[in-house]
Amino acid sequence: MNRREALKKTVFLGGTALASTSMLTLLQSCQQQSRLDWQPLFLSVDHAQLVSSLVDTILPTTDTPGGLDVKLDMFIDLIYAKSLDENAQQQQVQELDAFNQKCTDQFGSAFHQLDADQKKTILMAEESKSPKFNGGVWGTAVGEQEPVGFYRSLKSLMLWGYFTSEAIGKDVLNYDPIPGEYKGCVPLSEVGKVWSL
Question: Which of 38, 74, 78, 100 lies most in the core, judged by the most C-beta atoms within 10 Å?
């Protein structure tokens, strides 16, 4: 690896660390706002209904909290409002409109108005045709990453927000802010839930 490549990777990793910290701060700020008085900063009413419905469909409430329980729709609105430049925001608006238009063309209504089977049909089609993220090594994607599109990037943002939320980290995943001794060889059956920290 030459010096230029090493510097580029170092700057990229530093930027990723700062961006992750900023996004976690935005996620925490969503947790303090009640759903009743939520006024989206970026999303229109139709777009907020679409995002909320997508969050609820992809991460529904079961025996664990769902995406709406940890306010992912508010988090996504904040990310779009605070971290995207004007061109990227316009792109998001176009992609949200295009997604709802697909639903209207296929079923005659916007996504949030469809029944569960229709929503499943739309999401299965999006899942099958959306490019996947390349695998990575130590946070760096392997190979040339093709654009993943609206659905895959929104789903990725949802999953990232969900698994880094305080409620999921503390109540669903294992959480030990002050870990004890290191055990190098433990049978998998003793591990239990995935660790959040």
Answer: 74
